[in-house]
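User: Sequence in, structure out. Go.
Assistant: Echoing your sequence, followed by the structure tokens.
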Amino acid sequence: MYVCEDCKIKLVKPESNMSTNDIFINEKNFKKDTSNFGSLNAPSDEWFEISKLLVQVFEICFNQNGHMSNICEEMVKICILKIKSDYPLFLPPEEDECYNQPHS
């Protein structure tokens, strides 16, 4: 999977910014794995906070609008608006090539 450097900075915590607890977690779960499976990377603090925010948006939206036929599209719109509001520098500008690039 290819991830551009700008996205990687936003999604992965740099090893130089790790606390003692982070280092323990890193050694336990995120070691450099040279097998075919690869290794995990610790999420950035910002990405972790955004993930929690998105779960909250999902719970509220689903509980209030679970009957809607287009609930997925509505939740995506709400999530994007919330990220842009609470974390304005996280998403790249829409004209950025990374914005519409598939990250699979």
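User: And one key feature?
Assistant: Residues 24 and 76 are 35 Å apart (CA to CA).
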